[in-house]
Every structure is written in C-alpha cells, then in structure tokens.
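Case study 2.
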Amino acid sequence: MSNQVIELLQSHRSIRTYTDEPISDDILKTLFESAQWAPSSHNLQAYSIVVVKNDETKRQLARLCAEEGDSQKYVARCPVLW
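Prediction:
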C-alpha cells in the first residue's frame, strides 16, 4: 500500500544536531501556529508548549531529563527548546 500520508510518516526523522544559528521569532511563531493546528485525540488539544531560550535553564533541564546516566546533551545545545 502506498499513499502520501504513509510515505510522509515513514520518512520522519528526529534530528538532534543543531547549529548556533538563532531561530527568528517569525519562524517560532509559524511553528507554534502549526502545532496548534495539529490534530489531537477528540480535539482536546490538551498540551502546553513551553519555550526555553536561556542557555543556563536548558543546561539545568538537560541534567534533570537525563535518565540513569543517559545523555540529554541536545536539550542543552538546541537553540530553542520546546
């Protein structure tokens, strides 16, 4: 079976390598608006988005997110954490 939705889902990748390039507020706004339009179960949209740009806060979150010594370096290194 082949259709565009299946192909899109199967082509998804999580990239956790980031540049130091800042992300503009316009791009963040577009991403945020797109997330608001994403479907959710029963249209509840029961989520919260927290935007973290502060480097020290991201470092602290990376330490807190680490499980049993598992590294969460991408949390500290990303330009903006959602």
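The helical segments are 4-10, 25-37, 55-65, 73-77.
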